[in-house]
Design brief:
The complex is a heterodimer. Chain A is mainly α. In chain A, about 60% of the residues lie in helices and about 5% in strands. Chain A has 15 helices and two strands. In chain A, α5 runs antiparallel to α7. Chain B is built from eleven helices and 28 strands. In chain B, the strands form seven sheets. In chain B, strands 1, 2, 3, 4, 11 and 12 form a six-stranded mixed beta sheet that branches. In chain B, β2 and β3 form a beta hairpin. In chain B, α4 packs across α10, α5 crosses α6 and α5 packs antiparallel against α7. The longest helix of chain B is centred in the middle third of the chain and has 25 residues. Classes of the chains: A mainly alpha, B alpha+beta. Chains A and B meet through β1, β2, α1 and α6 of A and β12, α4, β15, α10 and α11 of B. β2 of chain A pairs antiparallel with β19 of chain B, so a sheet runs across the interface. Chain A: This is J domain-containing protein.
């Protein structure tokens, strides 16, 4: 413990010479009786009898004790972390504590409940645990304990600011997150997601950057990979195939595009609805707002779908793997052809000189044949159809005649 | 549900603290405190909602009243009401002074035990209980109505002092248990400093009989110190200070002068008297209201002392009523009322007293306190100017009049710290005089109960039993410090430099103190030096004329030559006694002040000067520059 004095001593005078050094000692101490109370007294006893009046040893002992306590605290925190399903204790930013409960639509509920690290992944159990923790900590009844040191020294135990604003925020957050439908709506427009989603570069930007980039492929995967990952949370079908890497197989790539073109997203925009003007009982008013909200929701959903679709389109158009797959396919086809020709009897080394020409000719011929056949088939089908129609007509006429005959 | 309502379930998150309580057991009032989960000792109320529980037990018929309810019995049933029993604990009958006009049950010689003080009370003994109701197996009852209970038998009961105390302590502990919801495992009970060993033994025996495990019998001074040395008390007070404890109870006054150095407290001087107490104040107040009553109703009333039976009853009623009056006057600056229904001859009384009148009535008590304080300081050869802090204990010091009077009459410094100047009295603050002792006892109980289990726990615990000499400690007799030679303005003490006191006198050894400040460096060599001295301190009284007040309205007129009274202004003085050594060092981390001020261009460096005085009296001085590794200079002075 150091006492800090606000003084500055004068500099040593140049002519200073100290008093003659003496072999003096301090005067003999007298004896007193200590009052046996207080922590300082206990420490004094320990210093005398445990550490033989050695301040260094005493300090060390207390430092080690403090360390032990710290470790124990950590261990306890870990233990409780297992109990609380990994909710843990998040630091509460002063801004968070001063939220206005009236602005509840704008709050970050996961931050309020201390679940920022889980967000949409938080399980209902975790939400329950987190809510209980926060309620215990911030219940208005608990606010009696002083948090401010200055307040403590003045009047302890009576510092009750009666500030239950944050508690209301907790209640609202829990109400929303514990209801699956409301949570879905909230998650759809979660701040965290919206921010990241808005940061996604536009198609033109990506194209421009990619063309400029020295490693366009690398840039492609680095930029678009996280984008799809980010949006995967909204897919009803899970798990969601991801963009993957450059060396992904053809099946994977096809599965990816197939999935994302048929994405079934649960994202919806009810959360952003305008409140029906409160106090207004007018049914028309209500209906008008509801109608507007509905159209607004639909518009947002459309926009969102379009954006995702645009991204998939963009990915498909820029995907280096698609080019690679096409090339591979072509190569495979050619290889196959080559193989099949090599396997045809009657083809010998002489014929090898112009295989492509022969091939083409054959192909042409085949195609023509095919065409002719198709046309023939078409014509035949037409004919058959017409025949069928006339047959049906005939049959109908005969039936009618029979009927008439019967009636007569 | 098998669990009756109101029984607290075993709490899942039980605090790690063992359930211990602190009991302030006074002669007139007791209070209980517990250590809460928040780490604060808190005075709790009993089931009647009283934090100050009257030490009184009353027997009325088959009922027994304890605490403030028993006090009300003083009106009609004073001969069966027992008060003031704590001071008789452990005493023989022959040692107990007999009072002339007792206001409660008389102390008598026990009929069988030799030389034992006892009380005789009339009670109604419950008669034997009626027959158990009949069941199907035995003979059916003749009628459906239960057998009427026979009349209780009037009888006499002889209670010795320790029995009474046992009943009372049991009720206190019961209140604490009701509050905590668990069984109390230990208690620290306060005792006055003047309690003899036999009285302490008697109290421990009584507590054991009441089923309380006594952790420590704590002296009242120590209990006060336990509260005032906590961080909660005040963060602005100096860790080394001289503290005056003024404990004004209803029947006695204790004053103690404590030296507190970083939480270690020891008594420098103390005095105790039973001549001064709040009872005198009560008497004055009762006489005032009695006279007022006579004036208003023309009914003769002689109170304090009263002779007539009706007068005595009126006095008892007034005594109860003025409790409220005193509390009101402590809490608010306005007037306080006193209302008694049917004070005498069926006349009701309502009167008020304002603070000025009250202070006038209380003046004899106030002056008695300030006289006692002055005498104590004189005997201890300590000037009032040296007292850094005043702490009040008891109900009466809640009256701000006492503080105001004491500060003026005993001549304390203007900046002396009191709970009133710190603003901690009101609203149940830390300085609340009525709960300091109980809270100190509770925090001590928690401290001892949570002592870590190690090899010397048993040994350290003996310090709390008062049987070992562990509490003996050596203290320095003179202040040690360092002197920086140089030119200083206003060097009245003729020291020739700046004096920095580091280890104050009465500091228990071993002691370690570190002081941080800026040293001026000589420009050329960045050198600094200081002398280590042992000094004696004194008080210099200077007569100063008060500054003349010039009124603007008497312009032009020649000023009258008024003989103005001089006032004494006290200054602390320092006289060099023993030169212990010279420390010279060269600063490595000097900085030059910039700017245009008077100090511009001067070199300074911040240093830590540490003094360690061992228990034997050897001194180690070490100088360190803040931010640099290792000491730059040191000095060792061997023990004598």
């Amino acid at each position: 413990m150091t006492t800090v004095l606000q003084i500055t001593t004068p500099p040593l005078p140049a002519s200073y010479s100290g008093p003659s050094t003496s072999k003096a000692t301090i005067s003999r101490p007298t004896t007193r009786q200590l009052l046996p109370a207080g922590t300082a007294h206990l420490q004094h006893l320990r210093l005398l009898h445990h550490h033989a009046s050695d301040f260094a040893a005493h300090d060390e002992h207390y430092a080690s004790l403090e360390q032990q306590r710290e470790e124990e605290r950590k261990r306890a925190a870990q233990l409780s972390a297992e109990d609380d399903l990994g909710v843990g204790d998040e630091e509460e930013h002063p801004d968070l504590l001063s939220l206005d409960p009236k602005e509840w639509k704008k709050h970050d509920y996961y931050a309020v409940l201390g679940l920022s690290k889980y967000r949409y992944k938080a399980t209902p159990e975790q939400i329950k645990v987190a809510n209980r923790k926060k309620v215990l900590k911030h219940h208005p009844d608990k606010k009696a304990t002083p948090t401010d040191k200055d307040a403590t020294s003045l009047i302890y135990g009576t510092v009750n600011t009666n500030d239950d604003a944050f508690f209301k925020c907790i209640a609202k957050a829990h109400e929303t997150l514990s209801n699956p439908e409301k949570r879905r709506q909230y998650d759809s427009v979660d701040h965290d997601f919206v921010e990241q989603w808005e940061d996604v570069p536009s198609a033109t930007e990506i194209k421009a950057r990619m063309s400029k980039s020295s490693k366009p492929n690398d840039y492609f995967f680095r930029t678009l990979g996280p984008v799809f990952e980010l949006y995967s949370r909204f897919s009803r079908a899970q798990p969601v195939p991801q963009l993957g890497l450059e060396d992904a197989s053809k099946e994977d790539v096809e599965a990816f595009y197939d999935f994302w073109y048929n994405l079934d997203s649960w994202r919806s925009f009810e959360w952003l609805d305008k409140e029906v003007n409160e106090g207004s009982d007018s049914r028309d008013d209500k209906r008008y707002t509801e109608k507007k909200n509905k159209s607004e929701r639909a518009r947002r959903k459309k926009e969102d779908t379009a954006k995702v679709r645009g991204l998939v389109d963009l990915a498909l158009s820029l995907d280096p793997r698609i080019k690679r797959i096409k090339q591979e396919e072509k190569a495979a086809r050619e290889a196959k052809k080559a193989a099949s020709r090599a396997g045809t009897p009657g083809v010998n080394g002489k014929a090898n000189a112009k295989p492509s020409k022969e091939e083409e000719e054959r192909k042409k011929k085949e195609e023509e044949e095919k065409k002719v056949a198709e046309e023939a088939a078409k014509a035949e089908a037409k004919k058959a159809k017409a025949a069928a129609a006339t047959a049906a007509k005939k049959a109908r006429r005969a039936a009618r005649a029979a009927e008439e005959g019967g009636a007569a | 549900m098998s669990v009756p309502n109101g029984v607290p379930a075993a709490s899942a998150d039980a605090p790690s603290l063992p359930p211990v309580v602190g009991i302030n057991f006074g002669n007139s009032y007791a209070s209980i405190a517990v250590f809460t989960k928040e780490g604060i000792a808190e005075c709790i109320a009993n089931e009647d909602g009283e934090r100050q529980i009257a030490c009184a037990i009353s027997f009325h018929g088959e009922e027994m009243y304890i605490g403030n309810q028993a006090k009300h019995q003083l009106v009609k049933n004073h001969e069966n009401t027992i008060t003031g029993f704590r001071n008789l604990l452990g005493k023989k009958f022959s040692e107990v002074p007999q009072t002339k006009s007792p206001i409660s049950a008389v102390v008598i010689q026990h009929p069988t035990l030799p030389d034992e003080p006892a009380y005789k009370v009339k009670v109604l003994q419950a008669s034997p209980s009626p027959l158990p109701p009949s069941t199907a197996t035995n003979t059916p009852a003749a009628s459906v109505a239960p057998t009427p209970r026979s009349e209780p038998i009037p009888s006499e009961r002889i209670l010795i002092v320790s029995e009474v105390t046992t009943i009372f302590i049991k009720s206190l502990v019961q209140s604490a248990e009701d509050f905590l919801g668990t069984k109390v495992q230990g208690a620290v009970i306060t005792v006055p400093a003047w309690f003899t060993q036999s009285q302490k033994d008697a109290l421990s025996k009584v507590a054991t009989e009441a089923g309380v495990n006594v952790i420590q019998l704590l002296e009242e001074n120590a209990a006060a110190a336990a509260t005032t040395t906590t961080e909660l008390w005040s963060s602005d007070l100096r860790p080394d200070r001289t503290q005056l404890l003024v404990d004004l109870g209803s029947s006695s006054l204790h004053i103690s002068l404590l030296s507190i150095s970083t939480g270690l407290a020891h008594v420098l001087a103390s005095s105790s008297t039973t001549d001064v107490g709040a009872d005198q104040l009560d008497d004055a107040l009762i006489r005032f209201f009695g006279a007022d009553f006579t004036k208003k109703t023309k009914v003769a009333l002689t109170v304090a002392p009263a002779t007539d039976t009706t007068d005595r009853r009126a006095e008892a009623k007034l005594r109860l009523a003025i409790e409220h009056t005193k509390r009101t006057i402590s809490a608010s600056p306005g007037a306080a009322t006193c209302s008694v229904e049917s004070l005498k001859d069926g006349f009701d009384y309502t009167g008020t007293v304002n603070r000025m009148r009250f202070d006038m009535l209380a003046r004899p008590v106030y002056s008695a306190v300030s006289n006692a304080v002055s005498t104590l300081l004189q005997n201890a050869e300590i000037d009032a100017h040296d007292v850094d802090e005043i702490v009040y204990i008891g109900g009466t010091p809640c009256l701000p009049g006492l503080n105001d009077h004491l500060l003026l009459a005993a001549g304390f410094r203007e900046d002396v710290d009191t709970p009133f100047s710190l603003g901690t009295v009101v609203g149940g603050g830390v300085g609340d005089p009525t709960t300091i002792l109980a809270r100190g006892a509770a925090s001590q109980a928690a401290l001892v109960a949570t002592m870590p289990e190690d090899e010397d726990k048993a040994e350290l615990k003996t310090a709390y039993q008062g049987v070992s000499n562990l509490n003996d400690v050596a203290v320095v007799t003179r202040t040690l410090g360092v002197l920086f030679p140089g030119q200083v303005e206003n060097d009245v003490d003729g020291l020739g430099g700046v004096w920095v006191p580091i280890v104050l006198k009465e500091t228990p050894l071993p002691a370690r103190r570190t002081v941080r400040f800026d040293v001026g460096l000589s420009d050329a060599s960045k050198k600094f030096a200081f002398e280590v001295w042992e000094v004696s301190e004194g008080i210099r009284v200077e007569k100063v004329k008060p500054p003349k007040v010039v009124y603007s309205d008497d312009e032009g007129e020649p000023e009258e030559e008024e003989e103005e009274e001089e006032i004494d202004v006290k200054h602390k003085t320092v006289k060099k006694e023993v030169f212990l050594g010279l420390v010279e060092a060269e600063a490595k981390l000097g900085v030059q002040a910039k700017g245009k001020g008077p100090d511009a261009g001067k070199w300074t460096s911040t240093v830590d000067v540490r003094l360690i005085v061992s228990a034997e009296g050897s001194l180690d001085v070490e100088v360190k520059e803040v931010g640099a590794e290792g000491p730059v200079a040191s000095l060792r002075v061997a023990a004598s």
